[in-house]
Write a structure and sequence with these properties.
Blueprint: H1 4-26, H2 31-44, H3 50-64, H4 67-83, H5 87-99, H6 104-117, H7 120-132, H8 139-158, H9 165-184, E1 192-196, H10 199-207, H11 217-235, E2 240-244, H12 247-255, H13 267-278, E3 281-283
Parallel strand pairs: 1-2
Antiparallel strand pairs: 2-3
Helix pairs in contact: 1-2, 2-3, 3-4, 4-5, 4-6, 6-7, 6-8, 7-8, 8-9, 9-11
């Protein structure tokens, strides 16, 4: 017979797995998040061979999901097989994925995969595909397209190639988008002080349940990036000063009221003082700067890739 605390823990683990399943099925932009969370929740629940169980779930999504869910699940399967030291199987899945009619989202993912591998020519091919498949006017597909354009420009620079017509087109689109947002949100030009858990603290934050509901250490940085990208394009928060905090600091920040940064007792005053003591990280970093999450990878190949 289980004790109450053991049953409660088991129920929470099962709830996390169920939430992850729903997320993976919902749409192709949440599939990878859902699969990561499914694997993490399976590990936490003590499931026998969580990697194999995740691969089985991947295969079902590939077979039964809609187009973007299937593409995203196959992309995740490639990454998982690589992680497991199965390069031949991973390459076979990757070849299938590249033969599929890609979406803007998948083409951008493939470009980032090859860029991370150091194959800049293939990365350039897929970033270019992402720009020429279609031209969405707004929404998540447009964010994918703009990110692919920025990554493409960075790759061309690394290859020693001069800017071309697509580079200038995307540069102009970025300027117009930022100008439009600044007109709609004229008071949001200053950088926003934003607390975050650095890698040295994120596991401790997860153990203290200080991360957002349903988010673990694996997903924390991806989720933050997605929310900041959305805020940039919908609320004009184009720049942030990221302030590293400990769990204890986070608890204080959560309790403080918002107010002027020169008024003691406000959230902003506390964060500004923290920033002056420990330093800040600018968001978004300028390529080819390291990613703000301290993974050691370039921003464009890490959190800078859109996940929605």
């Amino acid at each position: 017979m289980w004790k109450g605390s053991e049953f409660g823990r088991w129920q929470r683990d099962e709830d996390r797995i169920a939430v992850a399943r729903r997320m993976a099925w919902r749409d192709g932009r949440s599939t990878i998040h859902g699969l990561l969370q499914f694997r993490s929740a399976s590990r936490r629940a003590g499931v026998a061979d969580p990697e194999a169980r995740t691969l089985e779930f991947c295969d079902r999504l590939i077979r039964e999901g809609d187009r973007q869910v299937s593409l995203s699940a196959r992309y995740f399967k490639v990454m998982l097989l690589r992680e497991q030291g199965q390069p031949e199987r991973a390459m076979a899945e990757l070849e299938v994925l590249e033969r599929c009619a890609p979406t803007v989202h998948t083409a951008e993912q493939l470009g980032s995969l090859w860029a991370a591998d150091g194959d800049l020519e293939r990365a350039l091919h897929w970033y270019t595909c992402a720009l020429t498949l279609e031209c969405p006017a707004d929404g998540a597909a447009q964010r994918d397209r703009r990110q692919a354009g920025r990554n493409r420009t960075a790759v061309r620079t690394q290859l020693g190639l001069p800017p071309d017509e697509l580079d200038f087109l995307l540069f102009q689109e970025d300027i117009e988008a930022e100008a439009k947002c600044m007109r709609e949100h004229p008071d949001t030009g200053a950088p926003v002080l934003t607390p975050y858990f650095p890698r040295s603290e994120v596991e401790r934050a997860a153990a203290a349940e200080a991360l957002p509901p349903g988010v673990d250490a694996e997903l924390y940085y991806q989720r933050s990036e997605v929310l900041w990208q959305i805020a940039a394009e919908t609320h004009g928060v184009w720049r942030r000063l990221l302030v590293p905090v400990r769990v204890e600091d986070h608890e204080i920040v959560q309790r403080l009221p918002s107010g002027p940064d020169d008024q003691p007792g406000t959230r902003e005053y506390y964060l500004l003082d923290q920033a002056e003591r420990v330093g800040v990280t600018h968001w978004p970093p300028h390529d080819p700067a390291p990613c703000w999450c301290m993974s050691g990878q370039p921003y464009a190949c890490c959190c800078g890739r859109p996940r929605r």
